[in-house]
Structure formats: C-alpha cells, structure tokens
Amino acid sequence: MWPKLPQRMYLQDSFQRRFFRMNVQAPPRLLELGAQCLLHNEALAIMALEELPIELFPPLFMEAFAGRHTEALKAMVQAWPFPCLPLGALMQDHQPHLDTFQAALDGLDVLLAQEVRPRRWKLQVLDLRRKTHQDFWTLWSGMKVSVCSLLEPEPAQPMQKRCRVEAQAGLKPEQAPVEVLVDLCIKEDTLDETLSYLLKKAKKRGKLLHIRCQKLRIFTMPMKSIRKILKVVQLDSIQDLEVNCIWKLATLSRFLPHLGRMGNLRRLLLSRIHILPHTTPDQENCVNQLSAQFLNLPHLQELYLDSISFLEGRLHQVLRCLNTPLETLSITNCLISESDLTYLSQCPSVSLLKDLGLSGVNLTSLNLESLQVLIERTSATLQELDLDECGIMDSQFSALLPSLSGCSQLTTFSFCGNPISMAVLESLLHHTMGLSKLSHVLYPAPLESYEDVHGTLHLGLLAQLHARLKQLLCKSGRSSMFWVSASPCPHCGDQILYDTEPILCPCYLPD
Predict the structure, then answer these.
(1) Residue 19 in contact with residue 31, Cβ under 8 Å?
(2) Digit-coded pLDDT (tens) for 439-496
(3) How far apart are alpha carbons 4 and 188 in whole angstroms?
(4) Torsion angles phi and psi, residue 474, rounded to 5
(5) How many angstroms separate the CA atoms of 459 and 446, rounded?
(6) Would you tell me the crossing angle of helices 394-404 and 422-431 to the nearest 10 degrees?
C-alpha cells in the first residue's frame, strides 16, 4: 500500500511511475494513454507541471491540444521549458479550434503580465508558422534519448536572483519580449477570429509581445484594415511580401510608407496596380514615391511586377533607385516601350540576374537588340529565362540565339505561346547543345503543326515534329534534356502539353 504523501508529491510520484518505468523507446501510444489519464483531472495535471520532467511536456501538450483541454494548455504555455513553442506545426496536424488557440495566447498573456516569471520559464518564441519545426512533435512523442539530449533547454538563468539585485538597486527588472512568428495572409473584408485575437493581445502587451512576420500576403482588403494590422507587426521582420490587390496608384501611395520600413525585405511582388487614363502630377509623384522606397530596401533580391499599368515609358523611374543587384526580375503582363527595354539592358541592378521573366510582355513590334544585350550581360549567372506569350517572331528569335548560346548556367528556358517555326526550333537546339546545365526547354507547338489560321492544332503533325526534335537530341548525345511542347487550346485556353504523348484538354477528348 502506498504511503500517504502530500498531494503534489503524490501526483509527481504517480506520473513518474507511469512514465519512467517505460523504456525510452516505448511506443507513442503508451505516452498518449498516460497523458490522457493525467488530463482526466485538469486541476491535478496543472499542479503536476512544476515537477514534470521536460521530456514529457511535448507529448502532454499534444494530448491537451488534441483533446481541447484549454486550462491545461494555458498553464503549460506558462511553464513551457523550451525557448520555442512550435504551435503552428501542431495546428498543421490537428484541426485547430478557436478555444485552444485562444487558450495558448491567454497563457502567454498571463506569463507576460508577471513581474517575476516562473522558475522554469524559458519561452522566447511562439512559432505559429505551419511549415516549420514539423518534426519536433513527432520526435518528442517518440521519446528517443538522442532527441532529448539535442532539444534539452539550456541551464536555467538565475532570473529571481537577478530581479532581487535589481530591486535592491532601485531598478525595474528588464523583461525581454516574447516573439510570435507568423506568416500572414490578409484577405476578405474582415479579419478571421484567430488573427483578430492575436492582434488584440499584441496591442494589449505592447513592447512585451512582438509579432514577427516573415511572409506577408495581402489580397483584397480595405486599406484601413491593412494599416491596422501593420501597426502591430514588426515591419523589419518581413522578408517576403506579395500585394495582390486591384489598387489604383493613389491607394498604393498610402501603403508605401509601410513598405519603406521593411528594411529586411528580400522578395517583393506587386500585382494589378492601375493608373487613370490621363496622367496627372499626383500620379507621377506616386511613381517617384515607389521608386524612392527601394532606397530603404538594401536586401531586396527578387522583384516581381505583374499587371502594372503604369510601367510603359516609366521603367527607369521605377528601377532607378535599386541599390543592390537583383537575383530575380519578373515583369509579366505589362506594356513596356523600346526605351524601357533599352534601360533594362543597361540597369546596374540586373547584371547578376539568375532568373529573368518577361512572360506576357508584348515584344512583337520592338527591336530586341536590347534584349540581346541584357542576355549577354547576364550570361554568366542566368539560370532561368521565361519569354512565354511575348509574340516573338522567327526573325526576332533567331537574333537572340547567339546570346542564348553563351548562357553557361542556364537550366530552364520557356518560350511557349510564340509563333515559331520548326526550322528556328532546330536552330535553337543546335545553339544550346553546348549548354551542359540546360535540362528543361518548354517550347510552343511549331507553326507547321497547325491545320489552319484559326489555330487548330493537328496532333499527328505535332507528334512528328516532336519526334524529330527528340531524334536530334539523341544524335547529339543530349537525350536526357527535357523538351516539352506547350500550346494553348484555341477553344478553352488550357495548355496542351506534348512530351512522349500528348496531355490534352477536355476539348480534344471524345464525348
């Protein structure tokens, strides 16, 4: 018969008997059963946390989260013995409920309100990102010794002793902020409840709770709501920003002061920004304001401009303030002029490009000599080139081939949707045969594979022409190079792909 013990000691002893007598390689199911048993009485489970071995925190937390034991979750966040709590990875595996999410934040809120934090407190980061630390919970639930040793927290800092010394000196103890890491996707007219609750807590705790957002996606939402969110986000934490809003240029100008404070931004996508038909001085000022913000983005490496209606004739205004070399420049579905193309070929920030995309930019009426110069300037670094749907004709394409042949690092070249003949395709093959790293070429169905001027694709002719290219590749010792034909269906616009066999859209399939 067990001797009578104080309640706390009895809980500790009971829990340790359940778990420590298991082999460290015990099946996760036993851990789950033990955690469920302990959580049958949340009050007793919370009392046991003070002496709970750190190895048992993760499996117990998982069970509490899955079982929606909100009070236990709240207490476990306050006693979490590791620097990071990867809650997002757990939310990825379990359908999160608002009450469990709120319980975790409430626990953090209680922790931040304490002048002297708990003895075992180690929490510095609450990670809400769903695609990070994905193996953390799996490894801990397995209870492997090697894992325990790798993830064991550092020795506890003498927080209470330091606080006493500071108090004797008349100083207020300094509390480091807890960081919340989250990738935000802002859309719709109203915020979802989880984001609203997080913002509420951040606003309440101010400097003690920092929201750091590495990836930010902004879709259709009133500017007032967007600015409200950005007000509580550490803007210098944003490294990847996408703005997918149908904005007028004047609306963009209201957003630009926030963009200028994102000093660690590495990737920027701006999409669907429109300008009024008649140019006004205010619009010109907005373009200059956008350009000026690039001075505040010294780490920018990737720039994507999609469906930007004001670029034509103004590309130099937009790009002139870039002060670091870009790795990626993508200008898609935009109108540009010949002077824009000339400026692009001379722009200092594009000399080290790895990825150049001009998909959907109509080049039919332009002299592509500047594009030749640009390709030559980037020939030592360029890895991916996208010229889809540019309206490039045979003569223009032929003029680009000598420049392409010097791109020693090129791995992928796509130029679908251009009216190119079989003869020019064969010439491309010969010019690129020496590019040892080129592995993927996506090309349009040759002009000879169409039955008529209406764009009806003859699959038999396409098969013959594709076989011809494959034969040439084999003869040249490049049979592993992946050449795929892609052309839009004239009826529905979906792509028809052809490698060894055609991948058809429904329009070509029998009823």
Answers:
(1) yes
(2) 999 999 999 988 877 678 888 888 899 889 989 999 888 888 888 888 776 667 677 6
(3) 60
(4) -65, -45
(5) 11
(6) 10
